[in-house]
């Protein structure tokens, strides 16, 4: 009988259940710019625009939002996730918006205007995301935007102006 009563009380108390779920309040962009990094591992999952990688030794080379269109250039930012349930792991969706005309999808050869991938983050922690020009076809000049999304809501974005060197 006590078990049934406890279950009923648990089901009737949604605020308690919500309080224990991670909740992001904001994501702040920190140090947008050009970076160097070491690739530790490439996962079996890749985006249509490139491979998903695990990195280390991430170093800001130049604090800027102007990016030279050069193979090998890495541009991105650190970010801080603020919210409730500090230390909780959350999965963010990163969307890279590509200026017109886009660049060819490696598999379908159709022009892409965006690339998406996921990254694991921690509430109260700092994360990092970037884009890297790996092939000449990717060197599209104009305004690129890197966005951070959680549960269908965009929390942050950063524009980068890609220019001919």
Write out key terms for the chains shown.
mainly beta, disordered N terminus, 10% helix, 11 strands, 165 residues, five-stranded mixed beta sheet, Immunoglobulin-like, single chain, globular
Question: Could you explain how this protein is built, in words?
Answer:
The chain has 165 residues and is mostly beta strands. It has one domain: Sandwich (Immunoglobulin-like), CATH 2.60.40.2390. Helices cover 10% and strands 62% of the residues. It is built from two helices and eleven strands, in the order ααβββββββββββ. A hairpin with a 2-residue loop joins strand 10 and strand 11. It starts with a helix and ends with a strand. 17% of the residues are buried. The N terminus is likely disordered.
Brief description of this entry?
With 165 residues, this protein is mainly beta.
């Amino acid at each position: 009988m006590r078990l049934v009563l406890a279950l009923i009380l648990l089901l009737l108390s949604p605020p308690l259940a919500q309080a224990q779920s991670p909740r992001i309040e904001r994501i702040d962009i920190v140090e947008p710019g050009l970076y160097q990094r070491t690739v530790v591992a490439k996962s079996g999952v890749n985006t249509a625009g490139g491979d998903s990688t695990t990195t280390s030794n991430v170093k800001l080379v130049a604090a800027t939002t102007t990016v030279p269109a050069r193979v090998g250039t890495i541009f991105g930012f650190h970010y801080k996730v603020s919210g409730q349930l500090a230390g909780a792991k959350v999965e963010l969706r990163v969307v890279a918006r590509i200026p017109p005309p886009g660049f060819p999808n490696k598999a379908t050869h159709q022009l892409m205007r965006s690339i998406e991938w996921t990254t694991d983050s921690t509430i109260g922690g700092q994360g990092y995301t970037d884009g890297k020009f790996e092939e000449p076809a990717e060197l599209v000049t104009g305004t690129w935007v890197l966005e951070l999304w959680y549960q269908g809501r965009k929390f942050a974005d950063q524009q980068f102006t890609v220019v001919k060197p």
